[in-house]
Request: fold
Amino acid sequence: MRPPQPLRPSALRGQVPYLLMLAPLVMFVLVTVVVPVALFLFRAIDNRELQAGFPQTAAALSGWSQAQGLPPEPAFAALIFDLAKAQEEGRAAALAARLNQAVPGSRSTVIKTAKWAATADLQGASLREDVLDQGKAWHNPALWSVIAHETGRFTSYYILTTLDLKRGPEGQLQRLPAEEALFLTILARTLAISLSVTAICALLALPVAHVITAARPRMATLLLAMVLLPLWTSLLVRTVAWIILLQGEGPVNATLQWLGAVTEPLRLVYTRGSLIVTMVQVLLPLMILPVLAVLKRIPPEQMRAARSLGAPWWMAWRRVQLPLLWPGLMTGAGLTFTFALGYYITPRLIGGEKDQMLSSFIVFYTDKTLNWGLAAALSLQLLVILALVAGLLAGLHRLTTGRVR
Amino acid sequence: MRAEFWRIRIARILTGLVLAYLLAPLLVILPMSLTSGSNLTLPGPGWSWRWYELVLSDPRWLDALGNSLIVGLGSTLLAVLLATPAAVALAWGKFPGRQFALALIATPLVLPIVILAVASFSFYASAGLLGSRLGLILAHAGLSAPVVLITILASLRGFDLGLMRAAASLGAPPLTAFRRVLLPLVAPGVLAGAIIAFVISFDEVVIASYLTTAEQRTLPRVIFSGLRESISPAIAAAAVLLILASTLLLCLAAALQRPKDR
Reply:
């Protein structure tokens, strides 16, 4: 690290042309990538809709708690007022969608009530009974509780949901009941698939890297080209190739049947096995290359010296070569693991329903149910894990390289 | 030494198996795409080019190929135009915050593709560019510009700014120095970056499926949606064409990037 140099205005003036050359790309990335990603992630805590939606109702509900059952009369009047306003301003559908996320099944009731509230003649009627007549959802204290508690600019609802948690009637944290819990399972599955793919890649990369390093130059170039070739073909195409290979009448099944190993075609596609086989094939070059780069720089004399001093091969490899290989393995593992964590196309195409990873659910919530808050919270979760892994690897890297020197 | 012999033997066999595993899927779909039947079975009933003819004559595939080429070339041009000056600035500039600028530009590379696609979707939707080729060109340029930048930075690293000064001191006007000294040295890096940018766009499917409608479908997008319906040999043929295109282009890029003996 160079010491920071004091900035003299004259020195900076000479840099203006460079800054002008850099500016277009920086602006482009900022405007089309960084800001949109930040705005999208912000949706994970954004609560503007509910905050603006029920100001009167929330005020009328202060002091009420879910344990008391349905709220008192003034809350119903306030609800009619708020919903009528939302209906006039065209926000009712969005509000209904937002409430539906918190209390599934409430959407149609909220929309219906808002329409009714905007037009109803409310002179002298029992507001409470009228609202309750609009639909079952208003009989559920949980819905009122959402309106009572989600009054701030920000909400922890989406992030808690991605951790299978929710706020109880008194605002305390609760685990979601087992039949609603979903996201911790997905998180564990994503981590498990990525970890096993990384471990298998590391095991397979070691012999390949050793053989390539020991080979004669021409042979080494050829072998390296064979590693690079799959890296250069698209992820989609490689996944397609595996589907074709593993399908019911595909070559793998045909060979197994021809060998007499099976009598009926095995179901090989859309399983955890096919997903891992494909992901390892796709990611393996990313593990081989860094290991190879490190291995090339280790003088072969070191192993020979250890062997000539009487160390058995395994001990020599483990005590002499492996510590030197760590940085390469760490880089490779970091690349493989972080790529694997964000995988979407491969699990989507070749995995079964129970093999879908975090990314698939981000797509699901933006594409199918339009629950952007939840999609953003899941994205945030994925990014936090990626950052943790990167930090952990950087720390480990410093430790291992420090020890070797 | 017997043990040593076997150890090397085993390592070689393992390497052979691993390399076969890496290459097999690419090699197996080649004969499968040449089948004359309409199922993807091996061995097929006979050989024919019919699936390649279909892919190269069916308007659905041809339109997709056209879209892919337009988007690929457009985004490559934009990425190169944005990244080349930025690379020169980062390589030669002495202003503070260069590391930060590089990290910022590299954001699209570290983000999981799905997050990038969703964010692009909301941005291009608000810009009114959803379902247009222009939107996809811009999005792909954002994805490939950092790669082009890094490629050009690598080729500039070996370039001595003193060469420009030497040219100037020998009386060359700045433009001549740029044309005769800088350009020949940087051009291979720029070209390699451009090729990689094109391949990135040509292969990209997730952003494409968020930003395009049926009209602007690219080749990978058609493969992706075709897979959900049924796997026909046409998909294998299209996949082989994609493999050939990206392999040839990337070999070219690698050759351009190889350090020359001077």
Notes: The CA atoms of residues 191 and 253 of chain B lie 7 Å apart. Chain B has twelve helices and no strands.
